[in-house]
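Researcher: I've been going back and forth with a colleague about how Glycosyltransferase might be arranged in three dimensions. Neither of us has a model we trust, so I'd like an independent prediction. The organism is Nicotiana sylvestris, in case that matters for your notes. Sequence below.
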Amino acid sequence: MDTENTKLKAFLFPWLAYGHISPFLELAKKLSDRGFLIELCSTPINLSFIQKRIPKSYSSTIQLVELILPEFPQLPSHYHTTNGLPLHLNSILHKALKLAKPNLFTILKTRKPDIIIYDVMQLWTFGIASLLNIPSAQFFTSGAAMCSYFVHLYKNLDVEYPFPALHLLDYEIERARKLVHKNEKENENKDDQPEEEMPPQEGIMLISTCRELEGKYMDYLAEIIETRILPIGTLVQDPLASGEGNMNIMQWLDSKKELSTVFVSFGSEYFLTKEEREEIALGLELSQVNFIWVVRFPKGEKQNLEEALPQGFLERVGDRGMIVEWAPQAKILTHSSIGGFVSHCGWNSISESIEFGVPIIAIPMQLDQPMNAKLLVEIGVALEVVRDDNGSLHREDIASVIKGVTSGESSDNMRCKVRSLGKNLRTKSVEDMDATVEELRQLVGNSKSKNGSF
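Model: Here is an independent structure prediction for Glycosyltransferase. You can compare it with whatever you and your colleague have in mind.
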């Protein structure tokens, strides 16, 4: 074991979204377990979220570092996070973070970490690291399959994407185009800035996956971006550390039979439309399966549940359903009554579902989620709710897929498959993390040798 004097210091810099911060925090724990001292940098509003999730056993090895963003009248400090951020302010948050580069430079110059691990959303961090002669690595917090698909499309390669199981449907392509168009429009008004130093092709990208889950996609991604891909395993929080104040939830689950209940959640960044909420509610009702459903609204738009859900829905489902604004997801997924997870297929959520052996009812919404859903179907641990040609959900289809995942012979086969995969990934994640840590140590050693720091 490393002594205090020989421990390497890693500076972790995630994008300002909970869906990115959570895997960075789990990575911090894994590195700490392997002898690193960690400095995790974010805005004060995000650090207040992170602080509550650091177990006491890591309090001496994981230190939080504040990054102050420049002032914008329309972006007060409580909006220095994507959690609850109005959509029209997203581009301003990106701009504010980028304008904080001088602050980040000062922090890094003062703290002198041995290595910087930064989010792929902030590739410009490499330029700062390079100026300070600090070795660095990118961290991609989603899966290799989705990344390889979109990089293939972006590069306009002359050959077809080699894995036909992954493809976008017409309505998904249209949604992706609208998102790209929106981003291009936001970038048109960017302040002129000097060209930034980007990571070299021979650099390193850490990715939260395992070869057993995405081996062929990892290999293809490494080929088309010409960058070394280092898997670090799936990063899943300890269910015992996933939150307190949930006694009513756990007691309610205790009252349900084994595998009789589905957990329903669409993540912290997506809010259902009225139409989606109605079809999902009525689909749950038609399925006749017990459910616990996390229903969330944007900040400042809190609604009365009875008004937000179909008329009479709460009375009709009675004790068969429980609706909450927040739930300890990891802890719920380990409960014996849970037989399926109705999920948007965000990478963190599907990693937890596989880890805890819960098959998935896939209802992807945006971004990487459609690709993640198709990957899950390909490996046999999920069924996807098929939308119509306009991309709309229908209650009958939702109910049918819920029944298919929670009952019958196909359900048993799927559950066996996801439990076996989860067991394998737990073993392989440890091996992958150990191997990647050795690569990071070598990267630091080579840098110190080159810069005469030994």
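Researcher: What would you highlight for our discussion?
Model: I'd start with this: The first strand starts at residue 9 and ends at 13. After that, consider the following. Residues 189-194 have pLDDT under 50 and may be disordered.
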